[in-house]
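My main concern about presentation is that the manuscript never shows what a single data entry looks like. Each protein is reduced to its one-letter sequence and a matching series of backbone shape codes. For the editor and my fellow referees, an illustration may be useful. For illustration, here is how one protein appears when written out as sequence plus structure tokens:
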Amino acid sequence: QVQFVESGGGLVQAGGSLTLSCAASTRISSMYVMVWYRQSPGKQREWVASIGSPNRTTYIDFVKGRFTISSDSAKNTVLLQMNSLKPEDTGVYYCNTLGAIYRGRPVPWGQGTQVTVSS
């Protein structure tokens, strides 16, 4: 079963930038939409940005113009470039397929990567 490993998080001041990386254990079919999710303190996990084929991207309103999602199918990697970070962006970021399903089977959530933005 496919697995995802997130990395690239850290502590950054407001206005700073981070690039998150999501490595898949196998090449993901282009039929599937890849999503970055975020779980902020005290809140449920929410969808932040997605990328489908061919490079069709969508973003939650709060991050539009600041975050950019991209994928490198050759490297089985999905990136999230985050600019102009705000304290409200703080949370654990996860990647997964849309609906956390791949080839009819649930995809377990990874450990995520912590992003902390200080004011």
The radius of gyration is 13 Å. The chain is about 0% helix and 50% strand.
